[in-house]
Amino acid sequence: MMRMLNLIKIAYRSLNRNKFRSFLTMLGIIIGVASVIAMLAIGQGSKKNIQDSVESLGSNTIILIPGAISQGGVHLEAGSSNSLKRQDADAIMARCQLVQYVSPVVYKGAQVVAGSQNWRTVVYGVLNDYFNIRNLAIIDGISFSTMDERAAAKVCVIGQTVRTKLFGVYENPLGQVIRINTIPFKIIGVLDKKGQNSFGQDQDDVIIAPFSTVQKRMLSTTNVNNIMASAISQELIVDATDEITRLIRERHKLAPFEEDDFIVRSQQDIANIFGAVSKVLTILLASIASISLLVGGIGIMNIMLVSVTERTREIGIRLAVGAKSRDILFQFMIESVFMSFMGGLLGISVGILVSVLVAKVGGWPVDVTLFSVVLSFGFSSFVGLFFGWYPARKASKLNPIEALRYE
Amino acid sequence: MGDVELRALDGVTIDISKGDFVAVMGASGSGKSTFMNIIGCLDKPTSGEYFIENENALHLTENALAELRNKKIGFIFQSFNILTRTTAIENVELPLLYDHRVSSKERRQRAFEALKSVGLEHKVNSLPNQLSGGQQQRVAIARALVNNPLIIMADEPTGNLDSKTSIEIMQLFQELNKKGITIVMVTHETDIAGFALSTIVFKDGKIILNEKLDHQKDAEAELRNYPTTTKTIG
Fold this sequence. Notes:
heterodimer; A: alpha+beta; 2 domains; two-stranded antiparallel sheet; elongated; B: alpha/beta; 8 helices; 8 strands; 16% strand
């Protein structure tokens, strides 16, 4: 114990004699550890962000989109066919017991004019259930009624962005008439602010009107863009998806060997896909970062090898005054482990600092996990041991007579 | 061309008694360095025996030899061989760092005593580049003394020093010798060899002369009579 303490003292003194060089050697490890931590934090943060925003969308949401057109074996993109109708949505409402809310959805980009202001946005035609499915709250005014829907009334609810663009912050938009693609609509409600979703879309840049109004007056079609539904609970989402699939297949008279002519996705599926993407991204970032840690380790070995050569005479002196070969081995091992250890500690601080900075300046979500700290610190200490061993062994094998004569 | 066997030392038999002060002389290549390495336990002879205090060094492991060097032998070199960028006292402490029975408090104390005995108690925290050649050699002597050795091996200790400083070092050696420490010193200069008690001369790996000196020069007296030189600058 006493002997180890002495060796640590010896190693510390010799690192201290070459402060700048020791620091430069540590820098490789510092950068390596810091980047591993920062990269993992960014990856973890974006994963968590996706999960959060999916949950805010309503984690038991199910979306149906029409399938791809297939003509003579050529498939067009999903959603290109006209397979879904409003009647499908009505049937889901009537017959699927695991489904709580259903709304067919049509949408169209539109130019909106209010007085001297105008704005380009998207107009959604939906049923009242849509507000429940998407967790949309109306802070001013009211939503449209079944009567409005039946009469295809020209009323609408606007998002915060549309409100600000057309009326500014102070003017009250309720009761005002705006022209959507030249058709006059009366504003009866204003939505609460929702912010961006995880893909950068502004969820407040919308106008929502009764389904039949948009379908008949703006699109003059019988098709729907998609159907949104929500299961009665998150646990039953898979069963609800199956129930919907069975019903729609039956309604579309599909034989057992035929493919679905529509696509059903739950919000959870979408979350999982993006979660997987962000996981791959995290692994990629972390492995690039760990390469820099490896390079840092090679840096340690390089410096230690130079240092062994440069200090040959010193080693000779130590051997002459009674150092055993394992004392020399330990001294050099301790030096490299100490450097990687300190480098690891400093790297963790720098990594956390960088993560916080990225969060503050870049507005990017970060999440430093204990796992990443333990991982990178353990790895850096291992790097010190691994790359320190060879130079240390070389030093310990020196012949004292030759070492003393070394110029 | 076959391998030519070169015998650095051949048929050397010598007995150095406790308390002796031996000057080892000889041309380079005469085998005196090999001789020094063997009795300093840095090297082992290919055949033959070497007893230090009744212990046959030939049968010892590397570690045991290191231990022996640590406890019983002190080294002094021509080029001082003290660690650069390391204070005088840290240099002197060095052998004790490898003796784990010595506590750090005792280590500091003994290093200071050793520095004091070579007259450097006021240079404890000086770095080698702040010291003169003679002072650096004194640090090396203090380092050799700090483990209370049986024997001091000095390899041309005055080779890099001017003549007055050389005599000062010899005075220190004679003092240590009087305290009972055996000294084996390689030197080229007959002047310096005159401060020893006996002389060994090597030639081609053999001892050709091994005699006790009739008259040992007294370094202290020499220093007293040393002509005070007046330095002229210009």
